[in-house]
Amino acid sequence: MISILTAGVVGLVVSILGTPLAIRWLVGRGYGQAIRDELSENHQTKRGTPTMGGAVIIVAAVLAYFVAHLVRPSPPTVSGLLVLFLIVGLGVVGFLDDWIKISKQRSLGLRSRAKMAGQVAVAVVFAILAINFPDEQGYTPASQALSVLRETSWMLPAAVFVLWALFLISGFSNAVNLTDGLDGLATGASVMVFGAYTLIGVWQLNQSCGVSPGPSCYEVRDPLDLAVVSAAMVGACFGFLWWNAAPAKIFMGDTGSLALGGGLAGLAITTRTELLLVVLGGLFVLITLSVMLQVGWFKISGGKRLFRMAPLQHHFELKGWGEVTIVIRFWIIAGMFVVLGLGLFYAEWVATA
């Protein structure tokens, strides 16, 4: 528990103190966000706000993780390092995308194929490594068994598991990216889901088969260290939110959104709660579905729009809702999904105990 608290506090302190330094450095070099022309006038006023702030979240979380291991001396685990690899790797892909945007002052960065290639490379390396490195009990960081609230009996061939992991990682990294359209929206929602995975990691540690054997025990490798990673991300996101809340002084950019989404998918895979992430991250799923529905309806209806604009938050913005109102209401929705997800997780344990 000391490691978890240390990770959260260090992540918060580094992020809340490091972000204004990043703001000054980015502003001094004119690294501002380009804004799509079709967005509202409120968004046009944000043109030039420094971006790539997600790098602060990543640095704060990684530093917090290693400080936590120094405070309570213990070696980092394979599971924790793999999730951090996913966060950093996707952050690098996002950083390249952001860099092209600001250097060329356009709203589009990496070409879609190059961006997807980067995401695929990071995700595939993670997935292959995650089904190796068994511990003394034979547990690997990830399981080839499909998981909902825990492992099921559906075993996937290694190649199929890699494709499944790729789908989850690319899907959620892009889902958080789509959600990152209003000040503080994606950051605040991510805090809640990472917080949920902190609780899940602690619960799985206390109810692990090595500690509390029985029909309801969890066969998860390194649940404590996964909780440390989650807590580090909670603290880092909280600190960044201080500066990212409306009116935002800095944006996380694709650097942050891809990293956060990848981190959530990595935690879902390593805690054996892959499909539970769809509930815990329900807000991200809804916003992604709004884009898919908009595109699909536009094609089958001959050019008509289902929403005034997609993603969904911009639809309500064009309807006249204030930005802060949208963000707070979407945070409430995100919180309800997290509560529902944790309730399902606990109810399943009670039912099998």
UniProtKB/TrEMBL annotation:
Enzyme class, UniProt record, top EC level: transferase
Cited CDD domains: GT_MraY (cd06852)
Membrane-spanning residues: 6-27, 48-71, 77-96, 116-134, 154-172, 184-206, 226-243, 275-298, 326-347
GO CC, any one term: plasma membrane
Pfam families reported in the protein's UniProt record: Glycos_transf_4, MraY_sig1
Family: Belongs to the glycosyltransferase 4 family. MraY subfamily.
PANTHER family from the UniProt entry: PHOSPHO-N-ACETYLMURAMOYL-PENTAPEPTIDE-TRANSFERASE, PHOSPHO-N-ACETYLMURAMOYL-PENTAPEPTIDE-TRANSFERASE HOMOLOG
HAMAP family listed in its UniProt record: MraY
Alphabetized NCBIfam families for the sequence: mraY (TIGR00445)
Protein name in UniProt: Phospho-N-acetylmuramoyl-pentapeptide-transferase
Annotated organism of origin: Jiangella ureilytica
Taxonomic lineage from the root: Bacteria, Bacillati, Actinomycetota, Actinomycetes, Jiangellales
